[in-house]
Design a protein that fits this description.
The protein is an alpha/beta fold and 389 residues long. It has a domain at 186-383: Rossmann fold (3-Layer(aba) Sandwich). It is 37% helix and 13% strand. It is built from 16 helices and 10 strands. A 6-stranded mixed beta sheet has the order 5-6-7-8-9-10, sandwiched between helices. The protein has a two-stranded antiparallel sheet with strand order 1-2. It has a two-stranded antiparallel ribbon with strand order 3-4. β3 and β4 form a beta hairpin. The radius of gyration is 21 Å and the shape is globular. The N and C termini lie far apart (57 Å). Residues 59-132 form the Carboxylesterase type B domain. This is Carboxylic ester hydrolase.
Length: 389
């Protein structure tokens, strides 16, 4: 048997039979989504699903400078050529793709009144942006469902006064009125999202201590309590210990808290909430952790043949949950009726009442209501990222 071993960004080193690996995994924004043929068109998952067929559409869009570069000079050049706004070209590509789906999906057996948009990481940010469009009616794109993930933008979109009039802030999320055509949502995150900044935190280039940073953004008592909650009140015993504390603090600020605000303020219809706690079984710097992007191992079924048996079974269950959601059914009890959280891991797939989920830091997030943006600013200062106003 011929084996191939390859380092896959975001997952680690995967060793497998060459005929399985070849042409199976492609790179999409640096994350292995899996090819269109293998990612969502799983015969054993979809054809055998008793609720009916599922039409899956995958579209590309411009990235990086080609998709999101913006400047006054570019805006002037656009205006001279009759184009309003600036930047957001990747989002315009997504708008065009959704318009195409509305116009043509019936020809493929689909229903334009039941479109589910799914995004992970920056793709989830884009899904949120699509609910905030100004020069394009969301009603023309989605008479539908929304499935999303971590929503807060650190980069990418531009407030151009044309396509977008503002960008989401954590404090604003509870007050948004979403288009009525978006009738249900599914949101979720990974337990250790903040590990994407792990290298920064091993030797953090901080001018002040984390505790001093928090005192500059929060009232004294609030800052001290947050430092205690996240073990930032004293110098860590080791760099790894410090990294773990800072990763938890920043991951909650940028990923978990915004999602928590969305799920708690959703009023349009059904809302489903999950937490990914199964860990990456492959060797690499993030092995054994539920890091950012590890949910892709499970959602798209691409790696089932390579996962340990228990994790492969969990992946199949997650896939069925997603398909059930796409068909307008309830994959588990709704959060907005029973505050139920679907916990994928760390040992089993289990729906828990929020009060019984002892891993989530919900009480901390509830305390921060009203001053969420200060948490975001503190997180970015700790990461030594420039804050633009």
């Amino acid at each position: 048997m011929t084996l191939v071993s390859k380092q896959v960004p975001g997952l680690g080193r995967i060793t497998t039979h060459v005929t399985y690996y070849a042409d199976t995994v492609v790179q999409f924004r640096g994350i292995p989504y899996g090819s269109v043929a293998e990612r969502f068109r799983q015969a054993k998952m979809i054809e055998a699903w008793e609720e009916g067929e599922l039409d899956a559409s995958h579209f590309g869009f411009r990235l990086g400078a080609f998709g999101f570069m913006a400047s006054p000079d570019i805006q002037e050049d656009n205006a001279r050529n009759g184009d309003a706004g600036v930047g957001n070209y990747g989002i315009w590509d997504q708008v065009l793709a959704l318009q195409w789906i509305q116009k043509n999906i019936r020809s493929f057996g689909g229903d334009p009144a039941r479109v589910t948009v799914m995004g992970e990481s920056s793709g989830a940010i884009d899904v949120l942006f699509l609910t905030l469009l100004r020069s394009v009616s969301v009603d023309e794109l989605l008479d539908a469902y929304q499935c999303t993930g971590s929503p807060m933008p650190n980069w990418q979109a531009t407030v151009d006064g044309n396509l977008l009039h503002d960008l989401p802030a954590a404090s604003q999320l509870p007050h948004y009125t979403y288009p009525s055509t978006i009738r249900r949502i599914m949101v979720g995150d990974c337990e250790k999202e903040g590990l994407i900044w792990a290298k920064k935190f091993i030797n953090p280039p901080l001018a002040t201590s984390p505790l001093s940073c928090l005192s500059g953004h929060f009232p004294a008592e609030v800052g001290l309590q947050l430092a205690l909650d996240y073990h930032l009140d004293a110098k860590p015993a080791t760099p790894v210990e410090g990294m773990a504390s800072l990763s938890a603090f920043c991951g909650d600020a940028e990923f978990s808290l915004p999602l928590y605000e969305i799920i708690n303020s959703w009023r349009n219809g059904d809302a489903f909430y999950f937490r990914m706690r199964f860990v990456n079984p492959f060797s690499g710097s993030f092995a054994g952790t539920a890091h950012h992007g590890v949910d892709l191992l499970f959602a798209f079924q691409t790696y089932n043949k390579l996962l340990p048996q228990a994790l492969a079974a969990a992946a199949e269950e997650m896939g069925k949950h997603l398909i059930r959601f796409c068909h307008g059914l309830s994959p588990w009890p709704r959060y907005n009726e029973e505050t139920t959280v679907m916990c994928y891991g760390p040992d089993t797939v289990k729906a828990l009442a929020k009060k019984d989920d002892k891993v989530g830091r919900y009480e901390i997030w509830d305390r921060l209501r009203g001053i969420q943006d200060a948490w975001t600013r503190a997180s970015r200062e700790l990461r030594n990222e420039r804050i633009y106003s």
